[in-house]
Amino acid sequence: MSEHLRTALALAAAGVPPLPLRAGKVPFGNCRTCARNTCGGRPNMKTPGPCTCPRPCHAWAAATTDPAILRSREWARAWREAAAVAYHPGGAGLTVLDLDNTEALIWARATLPATRTVKTTRGEHWIYQDVMQSANAVRPGVDVKSLMGYARWLGPGTGVMAALPDAVRALAVREPSPARRAPQTPTVPLRSGQGACRHRTPTYLDRGIAMAEQRITEVRSGVHATVYRTFLAVLSAHGGCGCLTDTHVARLFTAAQAKGESARHCTDAWTNALTRLGL
Question: What is the 3-state secondary structure (H, E, C) of the chain?
Fold first, then answer.
């Protein structure tokens, strides 16, 4: 039995659906029968598991916790040729935040709640409890891997796993199309809620605003979507306690307008974020 198969069986026993990766950290391609999805497989399904083909086809959707499938003759060649083991986080009820550089790590440590972490070649995986839609390049050096995605298995990691925060969910949210936007009546920055403050010092808020300004300032494409996601992330973290002031919001609007956004678009994006979060 190969080391990769042993790892896969241990993951399956723990309820984590594994799959083999070939060189380049990519899944094994579909066989001739399943090429171009002619087998009737379901690439958009939201639960792991193979189609009727017994081979490890369909990338993340081949992940399984069935030891009989993992040990099967049809999977034997893949395990012999495997370069690594991956798993489907969504199938285990998890979300992996793949932080691939120093900038991404600094942002996460300043913005997100601590959770279980796993060291990677260039950064860390932050693992949260609960699932969401996977999304690549949600910000520089950051990918989200959960439903319909896979992450390389690099060990159990350290730390206590936290619940998936709204700030991570907001990373994969796209701004609504103009036809679905909230009414265009607001013309000035809007205040947030007035709940109990959960920040011990103003430093946490100031650092979050500074990181948001930096994110908007450094974006090179997709400015509209980035502004909306940034507003949504700020409100997810700070919108419920009333700490945000007009000065904070003005800083965000100024950064957005410096990237070419109009004052009206900033107000629209802020209103849409408030509406989405129910604030």
Answer: CCHHHHHHHHHHHCCCCEEEEECCCEECCCCCCCHHHCCCCCCCCCCCCCCCCCCCCCHHHHCCCCHHHHCCHHHHHHHHHCCEEEECHHHHCEEEEEECCHHHHHHHHHHCCCCEEEECCCCEEEEEECCCECEEEEECCEEEEEEECCEECCCCCECCCEECCHHHHHHHCCCCCHHHCCCCCCCCCCCCCCCCCCCCCHHHHHHHHHHHHHHHHHCCCCHHHHHHHHHHHHHHHHCCCCCCCHHHHHHHHHHHHHCCCCHHHHHHHHHHHHHHHCC
Say if residue 235's pLDDT is above 90. Answer: no
Q: What mean pLDDT value characterizes the chain?
A: 83
Q: How far is CA 16 from CA 47, 85, 86, 156, 208, in A?
A: 12, 12, 10, 11, 34
Measured CA to CA, the distance from residue 69 to residue 72 in angstroms comes to: 5
Q: 104: how many CB neighbours lie within 10 A of its CB?
A: 21
Q: Interhelix angle for 246-258 vs 223-238, to 10°?
A: 160
Question: Given phi > 0 = left and psi -120 to 50 = alpha, else beta, which region is 19?
Answer: beta
Q: What is the pTM of this model?
A: 0.63
Range of weakest confidence among 3-17, 143-157, 217-231: 217-231
